Predict the structure of Ribose-5-phosphate isomerase A.
Amino acid sequence: MNMDQLKRQAAARALDEVRDGMQLGLGTGSTAKHFIELLGERVAAGLNVIGVPTSEATRADAERCGVPLTTLDEIDHLDLTVDGADEIDPQLNLIKGGGGALLREKIVAAASDRMIVIADDTKWVPTLGRFPLPVEVIPFGLGATRRAIEKAFAQCGVSGQMAVRKAKDGHVFVTDGGHWIVDAQLGRIADPASLAKALSAIPGVVEHGLFIGLASSAVLAGGDGIRVIE
Ligand code: 5RP
């Protein structure tokens, strides 16, 4: 089974948790896209759900698949969010934002009663940090923000190269919120909760890709089958 088939398997398993009438957070990325496609098939067959997309790309996918959409201004909570991740540790802490949607993804996950992470099992790691940590920043004053980020890294015992993310066309990648992303190669984050707190305290940081205590379970698809971690 190839990687894409594994992602679809994980998405299909998460779909088992969806009930009629649910208000859903819809994640971003290639794995979340499988979930949206499968959800669209169920909606076409009569399932009544409504979703809040975590990116403009996901909005387009959901519209194409016929999944009805709403916003967090129109509803007061979400029952379940299903999203992918770039890394998942045994405490279900995550690195997210490889697709650049971390800000909306975190707002949606935080507004949700439950978050199921869906992934192929290569995303499962003993310690976060091999995947570059995305930090969404305001372009204004970026030099000062970068220095503050470096200081926060040092306080939390990590260090590594930082680079402003570029889009495929070579221009700076701009998020759906109009911000930039700095990707930090940290290697190993021994205390992700402390680092998350330190980064959140920096004025020029809009959000970071450490999702601490937000995921309720993870569905991991691998060669040996599906593993659900809670
Ligand atoms: C987007 C994300 C994605 O969930 C993450 O990058 C995983 O994507 P994929 O399912 O394509 O591997 O955080 O901001």
Summary: Residues 30-44 form the longest helix (15 residues). The longest strand covers residues 112-120.
